[in-house]
Amino acid sequence: MNEVFLTLLDLESRILAAKRPVEIAFLAVDMAFSLIPYRQAALWSQDNGVVALSGAATVESGSPYVLWLEQVLRHLSGRDGPGVITAADLPAALAEPWGDWLPVHALVLPMAGEVLVYARDESFADNEVALMGHLAALVGVSRRALAPKTLAIPFPRGRRAWGLAAIGLLAALFPVTGSVLAPADLVPAHPVVVRAPLDGVVDRIRVKPNEKVAEGAALFDLDATQLSGRLEVARQQLATAEAEYRQAAQAMVFDAKAKTQVAILAGKAEEKSAEVRLLEGQLARVSVKAPRAGIAVFDDPTDWIGKPVAVGEKVMAVADETDTEVEAWVAAADMGEVGPGARLTLFLNTRPLSPVRATVRSVAYEASARPDSTIAHRLRASLDEAEDKPRLGLKGTARVDGERVPLVWWLFRKPLAAIRQVVGL
C-alpha cells in the first residue's frame, strides 16, 4: 500500500508540474499504468472529442476505432460518478463492436465535460475505482486550470504598433526544426528468415514466441505422414526393380533375348533408387532447425499448427535479441517532414528519460494499414553505434527531426492543409 501511495504522489506531482493540458492527457492515459494495470486508456473531451489514447503519439480522428469510441464516451459523459461497465451497459448499436475494440471491463471516470476511461480483461476492485477516481478529479481540475483563456488586449497604435509588428514578423520567420511524432518499436535489424523447406502442413511448433534458441535447435515440424507413405511405396518398387534386374542378369547367360532387357531393367532400378533417395532427403527436412542462435520471432503458435504452407513460405525468423533497429509508423499527413538520413529520437515506454538516438534508413513510399486500422508509412532507422542497443520488442514514441523551417510554417502547416481539403483551393 505504501508503494502505491508513493507512486500516486509521484504521478500527482508530475500532473501539477505540467505546463499544458496535452501533457496532463499523456500522463493520465500512459503513466497511470504505474498505479493499476490496464490494456487501453483514452481521454475524451466534449469540445475536442478523443484527445489522447494510450500507446499512440497522435489520434487519427477519422479511424473507425476513434469514431466508435467518441460515440461511446459521449454516451457515458452523463454519468454521475466513477463506475465499471461492460458492453451490456451500452445500447445495442454501440455494444456490438465492443469486442473488436476494447477488453471486457472498462472503468469510466466522468470529469465535468471530459471522460477518462481505462479498460482491461479483469474486473476493477473497489479500491482501484476509488484510487482512479481521485486521479481523475486531479486530472480534470488541472486540465481546466491550464485551458487557454480569452483575454481582451488593447490594440497598440503608432510606433509601438509598428515595433510589435516587426517583432511578430521576425518571430514568424524564426527558423525552427520541423519534427513529427510517431509510434515506434524495436525490431530485428538482421533477422534470419526460417522458411518451409517443402510443401506440407505444419504439424508441431517446438518453440514459443521470443524464446531463446541455440543453433541447430528444432523449431517446427511438418507433417511426415504423406512422405513416409510415399517412401515406403518407393522402397517396395525399388526392391521389385532390383529383383527383376538380377533375374534378367542371370537369364541372359542362357537366353539371348534376356540380354536386351538388362539395360532397361538396370535403368529402372536406378530410377527407383533415385526416387528413394529424394524422398529420404525430403523426410529428413520435415524437422526444421535453427540456422543460428537467437530468439524465435513469430506470432501465436496455435495459428500455425495445421496450416498448409508452400515451399519457401516464411514461418518465423531467428534474430539476435540486441541486434535491433527502430520501426516507426508516420501518418500520411506528416510525411513531408520525413526522409532518409533524418535524425530520430526514440522515447521508450520502459525508460522515457533515457532516449535512444538513430538515423532514418528507409521510408516506405506507399502507406499501409496498421493493426489499429490507421493508415501510415513504415519507417526504418538504424541505431547509432554509440548507443547501448535495447532489447527486441520494446515500444515507445519516436520524434523524427526534419529540415529547418520558419516558425509560422511549422505552426500553420496542418491548419492550412485542413482548410485546403475543405475548400479545395
UniProtKB/TrEMBL annotation:
Listed under GO cellular component are: cell envelope
Location of the protein in the cell? Cell envelope
Tell me where the transmembrane regions lie: none
Coiled-coil residue windows: 224-251
Reply yes or no: does the keyword rRNA-binding apply.
no
The record ties this protein, via InterPro entries, to:
UPF0194_transport
SUPFAM superfamilies per record: HlyD-like secretion proteins
Q: Which UniProt keywords apply?
A: Coiled coil
Return the protein name: Uncharacterized protein
Source organism of the structure: Paramagnetospirillum marisnigri
